[in-house]
Specification:
The complex is a heterodimer.
Chain A lengths: L1 H16 L5 E10 L4 E12 L10 E3 L5 H9 L2 E10 L4 H4 L13 E9 L6 H19 L29 E8 L6 H10 L9 H4 L2 H4 L5 E8 L9 E12 L10 E2 H5 L12 E7 L6 E4 L4 E7 L2 E9 L11 E4 L16 E8 L5 E10 L5 E10 L2 E3 L5 E4 L8 H4 E7 L8 E10 L3 E11 L15 E3 L3 E4 L23 E3 L3 E3 L8 H25 L8 H6 L4 H11 L4 H7 L1
Parallel strand pairs in A: 1-10
Antiparallel strand pairs in A: 1-2, 2-8, 4-5, 4-7, 5-6, 7-8, 9-14, 10-13, 11-14, 12-13, 15-16, 16-22, 17-21, 17-24, 18-22, 19-22, 20-21, 23-26, 24-25
Helix pairs in contact in A: 2-4
Chain B lengths: L7 H14 L21 H7 L3 H26 L8 H9 L7 E7 L16 H21 L9 E4 L10 E7 L12 E2 L24 E5 L1 H4 L4 H16 L17 E10 L7 E5 L1 H13 L7 E9 L9 E4 L1 H20 L4 H15 E5 L1 H5 L18 E8 L7 E3 L8 E4 L3 E5 L8 E4 L1 H18 L30 H32 L7 H17 L5 H19 L12 H42 L25 H8 L22 H7 L4 H4 L5 H8 L1
Parallel strand pairs in B: 1-2, 1-3, 3-5, 6-8, 6-11, 7-15, 10-12, 11-14
Antiparallel strand pairs in B: 4-5, 9-10, 13-14
Helix pairs in contact in B: 1-2, 3-16, 4-13, 5-7, 8-12, 9-10, 13-14, 13-15, 14-15
Classes of the chains: A alpha+beta, B alpha/beta.
Chain lengths: 581, 712
Amino acid sequence: MTRLIYLLGLLAPWVAASLSADEFHEALTLHPLPDGKLSVLFEFTTYFSGSTGHGRTPESHHSLTSPSLLLPLQQNNVSELSISFVSGQWDQHRSGQAGPLSYGSGGGGGETRGWLRNSKGASPGKVNENWVAVTNALGGLFCATLAPAKEGEVVKTFGDIYPPSRETKQNLTHFHVPHPEQLLCAENLTPFLALLPSKGVSGLSHLLAQPGVVLSWGFKAEGIEVIMPDPSTATGGLWKGWWEGVVDLVPVTGGSRASSIEKLFRRSIPRVFPEASSSVIRLITPEQDNFRMEPQAGSREEQWLDGRKREVMVWDLMDGGLVGQDLRFWWENEGDFGHPLKLESSPISISRRMAAPYASDGTFVIRITNNGDDQRDAVYSEVWPWWVKGWMSEVSAAVESGETEGSSSELLRHLAYHPSYPPHPSTTSLHFSLTLPAHATLILTIPYSKLTIKYTEHRPDAERGVELPSGVLTLLDLEGESDFPNSTVIQSRRSGRTHIYTTRLLLDLPTPDFSMPYNVIIMSCTVMAVFFGMMQGALSRQWGYVDTAMERLRGRGKVTEGARRGAEMGPEGEGDTEKIS
Amino acid sequence: MSSSAVPPESGRIAVAEVATTASPATPADPKSPRTTGGIQTPLDPTRIVNPSRRRRVLILLSFPLFFLLGVPFWWWSTSIERLSLPVERIAALESAPVTTVRSTILLTSAPDAYPPPPPGVPSYGPRQVCEALGDSVIKSTEAYYKQGGRLGTRWWDMVYEGGGRDAPALHVHLLRSEYASTDFPLKPYVQTPHLGLAGIPGPGGAAGGVKAGTLVIPIHPKQVGDRYLREHLKLAITDSILGLYPSEPPEIPLRAIKYSPNVTLSFVLLNEDAAEGEYVQGWDIEAAIREHFTPHLEPLRPIFNFTIESQMLYHAPLSFEPTWTDVASQGEDVKLQIESALGEAEKGKEGAEEVAKALIEEDKREKAWMVDEEMMKVFVNSERWTLDSGISQNPVLRFLLFIPSPSHRPLLLSAPSSSPPSFLLPQFGSVVILNPPSSAPTYHLTPPALKSSFHLFTSHLYSLLALPGTPPKVYPCPPPDPRMEPSGLRDGLNRWQLESVARQRMRENEDEARKTLVGIGRLVKKIKEMQVGEEVRGRVVGAVDRLEKMAKTRDPLEAFVLSRDAVALANEAFFHPSMMGLLYFPNEHKFAVYTPLFAPIAVPILVGMLKELVAWVRRRKLRAKRRAGQPAQPAPTDPTAEEPAGMEPGGLTHSAADKLAGIGAYVSESSEEGSARGVDVVGLADLVIVGPATDRRGTLRARPSRAAQPAS
């Protein structure tokens, strides 16, 4: 818990920086990755202080912010809210980064988290209603499903993992709703741009306002994070929106990685948004000597990124000198790009797979690799739908290789298990407190069974399977990104990335035959007809004599047939009549 | 399948067992060979094993009977709750006249506002003076409504006494004032909440003070002695009451929004393109609202709940390109001048060229970007502009202050006399175009800079909410201090106008509530399967109650509240989730559900019953035939049978058997009743089942040759 408070301290600087006057900052970060790709991150940050009138009529005045974003939050007592959409997979191995540059992005699909203030004197259910109301409102705004389909789908045990950035947890309730099936698409980009004061017309957002370009990128992440002003302490609010994508710099036909803003966006550097307080393009330079840029950067910074000290070039766009220009970067003397044979791995990487995936059960295998020199403390968290039932007694943690050997109890220090309560819609959440030995891979195995879900609970595309939300590894011992003097180049704890996500997992469920209603109708009709006919026949049947002798006389083999015919012909032949009598 | 597999003896024994143990229904006839043991004829096992005809009929009937018994449960489980609606009361409301509320107006006078009586004449108190004045006002009002075919009714009564809590809300007061105009006609005004001429605090003022909302008739001391003062007073009071309290509240124009208790006002400052520079960076919106809107919104609180939001847009591109043309009025003149100057220059006149140049320069300055009427319709680019938060279902009135980009300045409306350029969008809001002077890179709009725009917004608010303006014969309230300049701003709605709005909206609500209630009644009547639950009925009854109560109310505001609640309840009932026509299935659907279930069941039941019926008919025919042709019948062939000979199988007539053969049956004798003769029918299927040589069935299949032998 002390570490969480420390984390809170990490977020403190900008909270203190939030002033009463509204401010808008924008930044575009380019980060060439070792595998010939480029990570592009747009960040738009607005500091605001909501102004409400003094009269009896409720008023709400906005200048750089959009009332459609903030009013629902204000009305529903939201203290903090964060929404993230991710489509595509982040390759931890090839990129050398544990995740995208936007630390707020989740592991896959949609995700909504928030802290809501408990209203005084209101019923405890009120805060839940508020949560549903605010997620519905923002879901409408972003054209996406953000609200929980059922109330039980809300996870409330993630408050320690995502602590409030400003306030203490007192009087706050945390909500977490994963929507792993929700993908980022064009409908989410337009409302995102509409929330920005520059509306995609000027400033860096003009580069982003091209769905045809930015949506063609491989990995895409969009998100917002809102921290509402606190009326009690009169501190201002902040909202930050980000968009990140990964572009392949190497042409399809092969070639060099040389690229530029114009090549990436088919637009030159746009005119400045006049109300912006800062507008910068940042480039995290790769660790190669032959990397060149033009024009030269205005300033240079150092930043710790995933445990590595990196050099960041910064171009300030506010002076207007770069407007209409291009920004090029290339690797000198690079002919065709050759994929590196060995890639630097990130200090911590995590993967989750499914072993022995049978129809009824399987095993989650979570591999957490610590490439750093230090032993690390972390919490691994999972959320399952109610129909995934883990065998908690069978959970095991082991070290795969390396010098460090540890027993399971040392590796897995504590397990917080919040089971679901089927058949009500609910979720299971798990928090494993882990010790990650240095230079070792910890393997966490969780066997599970799949419960049978009702016919009506299946998704419309049931055969596709159901996504499980991504697992989250929360690092408890980070030291932050800012520069520390006299430190080595690699220091695995120097990072601002608190959360490392696994990918989401597609779990196939046994699906019923969905043409069942027709079969049921046909079957029940047949059963009714046969059963009823038989019952009535048995109860009202008339038994009688059949002359089989006649048939024998005639030498016919089929007794029944002959008997019937005999009976039919009975009245005609004198002999038949006699026989019946 | 050979029947020889069954030993005849075993069959015989089995049948005998059946006969002794399982045929209690068979009457014990001492003469019958059965009682003496064993089966004597092939007919006997048939008789023994088969249930009697009556029992079979009962069995057959038990199935439909079972379904009949199930019908109440089916009815109970599938019937829908359909509570009765107060249809008669709704019908009565529909035909009832529009509710009108009669108000009372209090007429009082300051004791020194009328001339003292001449000596010798008894002095009257203010009350008597007012009564006399009131009578003449009533008379002249009545006369006004009657004359010239103006149809109208005086919806008010005059009272001359009242105070405290029950004081009528409408008050006319004669006031003697030093600051009043000395000229006639008198200049009545409605007291605003600030300090009035009397210098006495307005709201809740002490006795003698003029309350806000009072219609004040100021009389200068010089006028008090005037001979015609009484006539002037009568005229002034009549005219102002006619203006402030019209007989019929004005119709709600189409441009105004439909009544909704909650209304959102959204103020948006739109910079066409801030990145071009010379844009508006901020505005003192709070101060502007406080100064221009709050005085108008506060009096409306009993009727509307307002919510205000404001935002600034830095990029609000137009969806069209305005046209760069001459400013309408001067354009033609200047063109002519230029032409003439150019013509003179051609003729070689000195200086004419320069005149033309100067005129062309001037002309450039007179040109402007024009927005014509078609463009006004598409001015609001709702695709790109987010004009309100859209967080509630309330109607939103948008007040847009548009700042054109420097390349589009000045932006004007082509419609003449629209300066400052502004227009109203019916039921949507209002647009004011503000062309800032090109002097600074950014602007901050202070309250004085916003004054003219907000003045327009205010008047557009009045149009959009259908609020009444000040009538011509009522003058603006003078400032509290006579030395102060009049504010020039519009006064907020006074109590008189508020009542007018309440009456107007009450009529609208009542109309809608009645229409909705009638609609609900029609809908429920039309869709027979529609559920009418307690929630719907409660709301309908509540709405009807309120509408009925409304007619008995005397306070216009109270009546308005009733009408507001009635329309809300009626709409809630109408839009209740259970009132969805699509939720209820047509009969075809029901058939589709029930047919697969009941058709297979119905076939055996119906066929069985049909067979019984056919058999019964046949028996009757046979009996009749037998009765008719008994002598012709052959002699009984089976002496052991207790029945008359005609009943035996041997007596099976050809004609009957012919017909029976069609369904594969044979006729056997039934022996239950001595007198009854019948034909029992066994279906084709039965015979087939009989055929197989199983043990159980074999018992019935005594060998025909043997069985027949004793008979023959």
